[in-house]
Amino acid sequence: xxxxxxxxxxxxxxxxxxxxxxxxxxxxxxxxxxxxxxxxxxxxxxxxxxxxxxxxxxxxxxxxxxxxxxxxxxxxxxxxxxxxxxxxxxxxxxxxxxxxxxxxxxxxxxxxxxxxxxxxxxxxxxxxxxxxxxxxxxxxxxxxxxxxxxxxxxxxxxxxxxxxxxxxxxxxxxxxxxxxxxxxxxxxx
Amino acid sequence: xxxxxxxxxxxxxxxxxxxxxxxxxxxxxxxxxxxxxxxxxxxxxxxxxxxxxxxxxxxxxxxxxxxxxxxxxxxxxxxxxxxxxxxxxxxxxxxxxxxxxxxxxxxxxxxxxxxxxxxxxxxxxxxxxxxxxxxxxxxxxxxxxxxxxxxxxxxxxxxxxxxxxxxxxxxxxxxxxxxxxxxxxxxxxxxxxxxxxxxxxxxxxxxxxxxxxxxxxxxxxxxxxxxxxxxxxxxxxxxxxxxxxxxxxxxxxxxxxxxxxxxxxxxxxxxxxxxxxxxxxxxxxxxxxxxxxxxxxxxxxxxxxxxxxxxxxxxxxxxxxxxxxxxxxxxxxxxxxxxxx
Lengths: 189, 341
Fold this sequence. Notes:
The structure holds 2 protein chains of 2 kinds. By secondary structure, chain A is an all-alpha fold. Chain A has 2 domains: 1-110, RNA polymerase sigma factor, region 2, helix turn helix motif (Rna Polymerase Sigma Factor, Chain: A); 112-189, Arc Repressor Mutant, subunit A, CATH 1.10.10.10. Chain A is 69% helix and 0% strand. Chain A has helices at residues 12-20, 24-46, 49-65, 77-97, 114-132, 136-147, 152-159, 163-184. The longest helix of chain A is centred in the N-terminal third of the chain and has 23 residues, at 24-46. Mean pLDDT of chain A is 85; it is low at 1-6. Chain B is an alpha+beta fold. Helix content of chain B is 54%, strand content 12%. Chain B is built from 13 helices and 9 strands. In chain B, the strands form 3 sheets. Chain B has a 5-stranded mixed β-sheet with strand order 7-6-5-8-9. In chain B, strands 1-2 form a two-stranded antiparallel sheet. In chain B, strands 3-4 form a two-stranded antiparallel ribbon. In chain B, strand 5 and strand 6 form a beta hairpin. In chain B, helix 6 (111-129) packs across helix 7 (143-152) and helix 6 packs antiparallel against helix 10. The relative contact order of chain B is 0.09. At the A-B interface, helix 2, helix 3, helix 4, helix 5 and helix 6 of A face helix 1, helix 2, helix 3, helix 6 and helix 9 of B.
């Protein structure tokens, strides 16, 4: 059990700085904050429990061994880990397709290949397109929350609606997006 | 400005024709997409299995064991003595494996048992600092229980294993210390039934590691190796600050006596010790009894450390008392009470 200090919320940059010095407490904090998300992305893409666990372990091992490949100027740690989870999960799906062994994962080379970058971009385009297809009332809350990074309270103020309504719209928007993307295939490849 | 206006201003897409990210602002959009995707996944999550966290952290420790240790200049002052003792004890490993695996080192304890003991108490310190404590570091909340548990596990079965597990944990403690730096040293943490500053926990670990490294050097027939003077000073300072508590918790009474303790030799210093606490004297000046002091106790700094570590006796350790001899004896007895298994 972690003492209370481990629950202090560290910024992305501070977490990554400590990981760079090999601090297991920082890794535990990152796991506690992001493991559910990483595991969820992996589960969505792989659709298989053991594979999702394997992918989750690979993602955090990569964060541990190569935290320097995260660039805080380019985005959030959460977003970066989602990218890694997606890439590793797609690796698994492709290996399964050719029936190779799951343990062949390339965790030791943190630099994304050109193909992986193209795949990331394809997924990004697909998600952006799905957002574009949302009804306006949903699209505006999604853009404000994720693209403008506004707190729900501020979004509610801007739109002149209660916070509860804002959250309801966000939830509905995400359900639509999830359904849309599930139909298209989460692997994105 | 509406969200759509913003979107128009940002451009139609965040990747160029090749599919590569097309610039700083576009990368922000990519981050937004991945955060959105992560939330979509998490809206209906299947929680990762409980054991996965421990597996991830065990993998990290195992990988970290192959990394170089942090440098002393990367550590806050209170972490340096532990790093040095970690290096010194590690350096005994090959000789211990070659010669003494089954030989008694301390009572009935072999070198393997001593390492399992250090591993177990370091784990209590590690837990206080927030580090994971894998099963091979033992279980239990007190020194003896945890030591027994570690000795009955894989570390107790093989000196090589005991050394490896101890060192991996010690390195993890040193790296965490480098990561939190000086600001982390003042944090109060629970440790061995009390609450103390994280920096003091590290000094305590350095001290005990030195005491047991001396045990192991003795059985190897190697000469004693005093800690660096600065380390002697920091460890002595911790010991002196613990004196009033040690004395009182053992039912002693300091009767408002005020004693000056002067430790000589490299890393020495002078401290004022009373029933309500102890503090270093900023300027030791010429040591000597004066009115208002019950006594002045003068002894070698390393002898003080050996007494506090249970490797010397109050009646036989060389020392000099000026003033009330009984008050001086109280200080020596309290120092001996600091020793634990």
